[in-house]
Amino acid sequence: MTSVHDAAYELLRSLGMSTFFGNPGSNELTFLDDFPSDFRYVLALQEGAGLAMADAYAQATGAPVLVSLHAAAGVGQAMGALVNSQLAGTPLVIISGQQARSLITLEGQLTNVDAINLPKPLVKGSFEAPSPAAAPATLARAAHLAASAPTGPVFVSIPLDDWRGDAGADIGGLVKRRVAARPAPEAEPIAALAKRLDAARNPLLIFGAEVDASGGWDAGVALAERLAAPALLAIEVGRISFPTDHDCYQGTLGVTIGAVRKQLEGHDLVIVAGAPVFRYHAWAEGPYLPDGTELVALTADPAQAARAPVGDAIVGDPAQALAMLTARIAEADRARPERRLPPAADRSAVPMRPDALLDVLRDRVPADAAFASEVPSLGNWWERVPITKARSFFSSAAGGLGYGIPAAVGLGLADPTRPVVCLSGDGSAHYGITGLWTAAQHGVDVTFVIAPERHLRRAQGVRRLPPDDRSAGSRPPRHRLCRTRRRVRHRGAARGDRRRVRRGAGRSVREQRPGCDRGGDRRDAKRHVRRAACAHDGRARRQPQRSRSW
Q1: Which residues are CB-contacts of 381 (< 8 A; sequence separation ≥ 6)?
Q2: Over the stretch 481-524, which tens digit does the pLDDT of each residue have?
Q3: In terms of domains, do 161 and 197 share one?
Q4: 231 in helix, strand or coil?
Q5: Is there a domain that residue 446 lies in?
Q6: What is the average per-residue pLDDT within 222-234?
């Protein structure tokens, strides 16, 4: 008899999904028992952080990744991060441990009631295996669906006693299956668009995250150079799909209807590749496009193409569409645009200005570095610190906080040979601060740059509210990252004195300071996973942090 447990690991091995991320509980222990030596479990201290790590890992590798979450509560904790993954189209397979089948009807403790509906509408599909023997096929379906265009997260609920069940028939067919799911755009509309580009007086290219995700970086550069056309990045930058030091690069789209309309003025044909048309932040009266401007979108997402309020659309892989267009158009005889370089920063100002911080980073960061970004106060910082390679920039696609630090850990695990830089505001850092623990456990090579956003906003002359609009007592307390770290540490703990720790913990409770770690059934589960990670990761649990001199 082949158990569901063994069949599932054989299937995941064949799909290249040997790295798991998660925060487990008792419902997941039957899945994690006898953890294979060629697999790796990356333990996160909080579900949202674990999902953000997996998100960046999947985007960096371009392959689906498995995330293990604990019952309904674990899924709920991760759903804030799942908003980012859904909008980014990240291929994730999310497994949630369900209570034993015999207790589901009774809604016993840790039952995920109506499990398949809990993560909707943030997933492409949501399934629960109808029987133990169907669990491997359900996992295979989820993996193939997650990796099929348009890519995205898929949810699977599996009862904890299914893993010990009989997988039934031979799963060789499931292991050997491969699904090619990147539909090519039709040749006829591409040929028609190529003729329009040849006839265009002043075309404009706009690149979205889907271009980088589909491997279209080089194809986009080739098209821009052949057209000698200006290139912009789409609104809400989750990934950067065009080199920001290129002559054709002219900046990032604005966030309001009026600002975008003004940027499109003077362009008779606009090509939007791999981005929605458009993700505005605010509504305003007036037309979407200026007079005389036509628009065509290239996307693999038919829903995205259907909801665009203006222009035509061609549905198909955007990387292939860009390459097909480049092969069909004539080389333009117009001069290339001139890149607008920002002025040099004043590095003597105190406190340090945002542009000075960015100039220091530009001088120090290696050219092949990958960035995890979550620092709104620095604005479009990639115009000062150039992004010059594909798969080098990752940010929270939906703006959900807590992405930067965990995402940097995921990037470091995806490619240990590549330097990773995390740019985070101090406020954003608090949402994903537990990612530092995972970074330390795995010795991930990441440089964390935590920017004090209050000082940066002051340097820019930005205020959240005018003084008259602040009612008495409504101002939030100031926070500092280093001060928070000191407050959560028990007094006396560093010296190892048990009596001091006991007294310090008592004072922490009386003073309402955070002082206790998480309890419940997860304590044993985390200890179990840490042991498995130590035994099977191939690296020491407390591997020293590597340092890089810049």
Answers
A1: 354, 358, 373, 375, 423
A2: 555 444 434 333 444 444 553 454 445 434 443 334 444 445 55
A3: no
A4: strand
A5: yes
A6: 97
Q: Please indicate, yes or no, whether residues 380 and 319 belong to a single structural domain of this protein.
A: no
* Amino acid letter for position 366: P
Dump pLDDT digits (tens) for 435-484.
Answer: 999 999 999 999 999 988 765 555 555 444 344 444 444 444 555 555 54
- Whether 246 is a known active-site residue: answer no
The CATH number of the domain where 379 resides is what? 3.40.50.970
Write down the pLDDT at residue 91: 97
Catalytic residue among 22, 48, 68, 70: 70
* 371: in domain: yes
Answer whether residue 544 is part of any domain. Answer: no
- Whole-number pLDDT of residue 518: 42
Distance CA 450, CA 436 (A): 12
Q: How many domains does the chain have?
A: 3
Active-site residue, 144 included = no
* Among 25, 400, 412, 435, the one annotated catalytic: 25
Token digits for 267?
A: 């362009």
The catalytic position among 215, 251, 399, 492 is 399
68 given a catalytic annotation: no
Per the structure, the complete domain to which residue 427 belongs is given by: 354-463+478-525
Note if 25 is an active site residue.
yes
The residue to which tokens 């820019």 are assigned: 460
Instruction: Kindly state whether residue 459 falls inside one of the protein's structural domains.
Output: yes
CA dist., res. 318 & res. 249, Å (int): 19
Q: Is 219 a residue whose pLDDT tops 50?
A: yes
The whole-model pTM stands at 0.84
